[in-house]
């Protein structure tokens, strides 16, 4: 199987440069929680560690581990992202969630990370806040 490396790893059918690459380079901002989630997955694939820190909720950025995150990104062969559900998270919303499965291979072992992520918008910019239990939609 041949993989087209110019396509965005987030699963869109567009080229990386005009999809998540625009977010990673800072020429555009994600307009929805799902766009941010997809761009964060692509950031792991492309080892864009600064972007992962910048899109983490500001109060949590001091605890961000760039070395550990880089090791996780580089030690994984990322093989796909599947969005299972999302709620709110549009331009006009303050919060939203995305339920996804990120697939990778680490040390020759298949790995699936299933997570329901909570995103929050602040001053027109979306941030990853935390993982939620799958039965929960918002930060109650």
At a glance:
The chain is an alpha+beta fold and about 140 residues long.
Description:
The protein has 140 residues and is an alpha+beta fold. It has a single domain, classed as Nuclear Transport Factor 2, Chain: A. It is 25% helix and 34% strand. The protein has helices at 20-25, 33-46, 49-54, 66-74; strands spanning 76-88, 95-106, 109-122, 125-132. It has a four-stranded antiparallel sheet with strand order 1-2-3-4. Strand 2 (95-106) and strand 3 (109-122) form a beta hairpin. Helix 2 packs across helix 4. It is globular, with a radius of gyration of 14 Å.
Q: Helix and strand layout, with pairings?
A:
Elements: H1 20-25, H2 33-46, H3 49-54, H4 66-74, E1 76-88, E2 95-106, E3 109-122, E4 125-132
Antiparallel strand pairs: 1-2, 2-3, 3-4
């Amino acid at each position: 199987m041949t993989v087209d490396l110019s396509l965005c790893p987030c699963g869109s059918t567009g080229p990386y440069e005009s999809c998540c690459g625009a977010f990673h380079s800072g020429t555009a901002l994600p307009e929805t929680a799902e766009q941010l989630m997809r761009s964060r997955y692509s950031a792991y694939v492309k080892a864009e560690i600064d972007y992962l820190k910048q899109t983490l909720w500001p109060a949590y950025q001091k605890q961000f581990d760039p070395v550990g995150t880089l090791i996780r990104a580089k030690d994984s062969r990322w093989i796909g992202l599947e969005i299972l559900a999302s709620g709110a998270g549009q331009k006009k919303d303050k919060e939203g969630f995305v339920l996804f499965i990120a697939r990778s291979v680490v040390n020759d072992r298949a790995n699936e990370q299933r997570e329901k992520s909570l995103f929050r918008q602040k001053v027109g910019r979306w941030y990853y806040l935390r993982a939620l239990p799958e039965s929960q939609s918002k930060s109650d």
